[in-house]
Structure formats: structure tokens, C-alpha cells
Sequence to fold (632 residues):
Amino acid sequence: MRSGAPTPDLSGLNHKPAGLHGQIRPKDGELEFEDGTPIRFWGVNLQAYALFHTRPASIELHAQRLARLGVNLVRIHHHDSHWVQPNVFGAEATDTRTLDPASMRKLDAWIAALKAQGIYIWLDLHVGRQFTPEDGIAGFDEIAEDTGLADIRGFNYVSPSIEQRMLEFQNAYLRHRNARTGLTYAEDPAVVAVMLTNENDLTHHFGNGLLPNKNVPLHSKLYMALSDQFARDNGFDPNATWRSWEHGPSKIFLSDLERRFNERLIPAVRDTGFKGLISTTSLWGGMTIAGLPSLTLGSIIDTHSYGSGGETGYDPRIQSGFLDWIAVAQVAGQPLSVSEWNIAEYPTEDRFIAPLRVATRAAHQGWDAMMIYGYSQQPLNGPLQPSNWSMAEDPGVIWMMPAAALLFREGHVRRAEKTYAICLDEDTFFGQPVSPHTSIGIRTIAEQSRLVTCMPDTPALPWLEPTELNDALYQPLDLDHSYLAGDATVVAADTGEFQRDFSTAQFKVDTGKSQIVAGRFQGGAVTTTDVVFEVATPMAAIAVQSLDSKDIAGSGRILISISGRTVPVGSDEPRFQIEPVEGFLRITAPAGLSPRPLRSNQTLPPDAHRFERGVHVIDLGKINDARWLYLE
Fold:
């Protein structure tokens, strides 16, 4: 799966260059450009060593490859992390207050190459930056780790000196002028989004680090004073308000503490001339909906979610899947991005199913920007070590990425017919741990209908705009009610376009332009409207999709994508054991079409395909292990 290896070419879906339609903007909970062009983003993360160690020629090749794969958004990530050397501050920098010119030239090259291919850019303003003693941080010694460096997550919400260093960085980063485009990052319409700080919240993860027993006296003193003042101003019990691990008043206070920080950084971003989307941070790592309020201060809500192997077989009445955690982050009336998703363990045998399920659910729910973590965090100059953080050469995942991109970006799956809303009062919203883990209602509705979360009327948070819904368009969600019958083994979309049989661990999409079966095959053929999948291999995914905007039955150009189980030969070897996918496809489509491999010098044996009674029959065992075919 090298950068030059043949792939389906979906690059025609992209606007070239990126930025052609002007600045991005949110509108009615969705995204469009300033000329009114609507947009959905199917993206990847590009991170760490891939940013700074990839050679110029390889940068160009991979930008082209990403466009062919259907990608139109890249998130630049781990640019500032200390474990990446060099990073944006250079190699082993003694402080983190100066951008390294050589590193910035690398980022310039990536951004220019991606922009030319119609791929938009998401920039993070803080990820893994480790502060040094030379950065001028008050109370540095009490937050420094054994390495002599400091992870400032959580502390930034109370420390003026940390905040100042972050302001300085975002100002320098966004005002940096790209030598290749002639534009600053802030003024380039191809840069559509920035995130203030990655995975950095007080309401769930880092609030506890400020408590009096954490041996950070300067920061604890600041925290306790702010908590006491907030409690007195709002009539809360001061002894409850500072207790960050408890639900109730503390979650309201912590939301407000996050708000104060965000309201100082957001105007500074705008002062650089940046007109795109701003994400404050993400809902991530098991957070409840109480972590959402301060995220609404941005122009897009962001979330991260990582799944597990075997989720196609999860019974939603019993356990949550990673897509359910994304669903609760959809705040009514605001666009939603997922800047990180993947299957956490590696290599799970069924990881090839994830892109299809993500794309299908995203289209059905109306999510706006999906970014797998990641395309690569290794240098992209040669073979990669197998890793789920570097899927650029993972055949199991790559083989289904174009199919997922096509389905999502071209709207092959319709928006849900019904929308359910989590609309709770202040006491329940902040006082109980509401999440897919605790709610059978969330788990059983999120795959059937659209789900949104409302913001409650909260007098102590006058900046938090309560959600007002049209009752005719939304149904209230009962958190404790199962929306799936007790004897059900299938959960299906309210549109009838896709379903998941969790008793057999099989996922199926059946629309006019995309017909897909993924998961376990057992018990005979699986039929969709225009395709019969007779698969002998125990586990696989096959997607049959129209490429010419016609339904499959009338299409003159069809893409067939095939994937299955792949296992790395070794952790350090760039080779995979690949299970053959065998059986037959029977596709109802116009006469005169023939299957064609992507390699121009490759042909199929005559008996690999026949046309009989209006049906194209393809013998999967005779296509020379091709994983993509055109039927045209």
C-alpha cells in the first residue's frame, strides 16, 4: 500500500484548490462556505514524525494519494509534542516560546500540497507541549514532572502565566506566513478550523489535579479562591463546589472556569484574522454530557471516541459502542466534528468494518467532519511499521476508506427521519453522570434515529444559552427506556437504509447508490436491493457503489471494494498476512459492463465474470486478490 500504489480515484470530489468557495461558516447546525456551498468533511490526522521527517517528494505524493482516497480534511496534530523530535520548536529546544523556521517550512509544505489537492486543514493550537523551566511559568516547580518538564493540562485554566504562553503561541502560529502560499495560516481559507487545546478539560479529567491534596499549593490556592467566590456569588455550598470529582455544583463551577479561559483565547484567535471554525477542546475519554457547556462557546463542538474489537456484535441494551459516545456530543443547533476516531486495540480482526460504520452513522446523524486517528505518525518515505495510528499502509483499513468517503460525502445514506433530544433540567444535567454507559435510552436510540443534546437553563451560567426546540421536530429521550424490543436481535435505522444484526455481528447498508455487507458471514447469501453477496469467507466487508450519481441498477460505473482480516507478520515488519475473500457477487446492473482491476497491466481471467439474465456474476476467488474493482 505504498503512496504510488493504485487506489480508486475520488479526487474529483474535492474543490481545487481548497478555499475555492471562500471561508467556512456554521449555518443551522451544519457547515457551508461563504458562497453557500454545503460541505461535509471526511478526514484524517497527520501527526508527529510524519509532519517533520517526510521528504518533499513524499509530501506531494501523499497529498495526491489522500485526495484519491476521498479525503478532504487533514488535522495537523502532535506538532508541539515533546516526544516528537524535532517538533515545531525545533530539536531538544530549551524553551517553547520560539517557532523553529525549519519545522515551519515542513508544515508549510504539507499545507500547500494538501491545499493544492483540495484538502482543507485543521490546526491544533496546543496538544502535547511540555513546558520548560525557561518558559517563565509561575509555580513551575510544583507542576514539573521527573523529566523536568511540565504537562500544563488543567493548570492552564487557573494560571495567568501558562495562559500567556498559550496566547503567545497561537498568535505566532496563526500569523506565520506560509512561504509557499503567501498567506498566513490565519488568513488562508483552506485552514477551516483550529482547536484551542486538545483533550484538556476540568469537568472530568484534570480538575482533580488542582485539589488541595495534590501538592500544587500555588495552583490549588488559585483554584480554591475561584471556587469559593463562585459559590458565594451563586448561593452554592462552598464545601461542595470545589469537589471536582462529584457531580452537582462542582460541574457548574468547572464549566464556568473553562468558559473564562475560552473567552480570553477565542478573541485572540480572531485578532489574528482567522475567520474559520474554533473548537475549544473535545468531549472525550468517558466524559458525561456535563462536559459539553463550555464547548458551546466555540463555533463547532468536537469529540473523540475510540472503539473496541467486536462492536458489530454489541447488544445496545447491554453495552455502549464508540459511536454512541459521539452521538451524545451533538449539541442541538451546532455543527459536530469528530477529530479523532479509531479502534483502540491493534490489530483487531474486524477493524476494517469501522470506516463503514462511522461513515454510515455520520451521514444518518448529520455529523459534519470525521477524522480517523491517524493516517500516519511515522515518516512517510518508505514502509511503515504496523500501527493503528498509521493506517496509511494498513490494508484492512485502507481498503474500505474510499467506500466510506464516497458514502458519507455523496450522501448515499439519508439523514434520520426522527430526532430525539436529551433535554434535562439543571439538576439532572449536572447532578447525574449522564452518558451512554449509564443510559439504555441513549444506547438503543442512537443507531435508529438522530440524537441531540440540549443545554439546560442554568442561572449560574448566564453565558450558556438554553436550547429551545420545536416540539414538532423533536421527541424527548427517556434515559431509562429501551427503544429496542426485549427479543430484538437487529437494530435498524428509521430510514430502513441500514441495520446491524448483533446476534450474527453483521452490518448491512442498502441504499440506491451504496449496498454493503460487513462482518461475519454465516448461514448463506445476504441480499440487498441489487446485490446478492454469496461470501464463503467467515469475516469480510464488501461494498458495491455507484460512481456516476445513478442508482446501482442503472449505473454505468460501479466501484467494488473488498476487505477482510489482515494480521501483521510482526510488529516491526511492514508485511501482513491477508485472508482471501472468496465467493460470488451477483450485481443487477446494465449490460455491457466488465470488471476492471485498478492496475492498468492487470487483467482478470475470462471466467471471473459473466452476465446472465440481467445480473453480473463475479467470482471473488478468480480476481487475483484484487481489493478494488471498477465495473464499467
Notes: Residues 111 and 527 are 44 Å apart (CA to CA). The chain is about 25% helix and 25% strand. The longest strand covers residues 336-343.
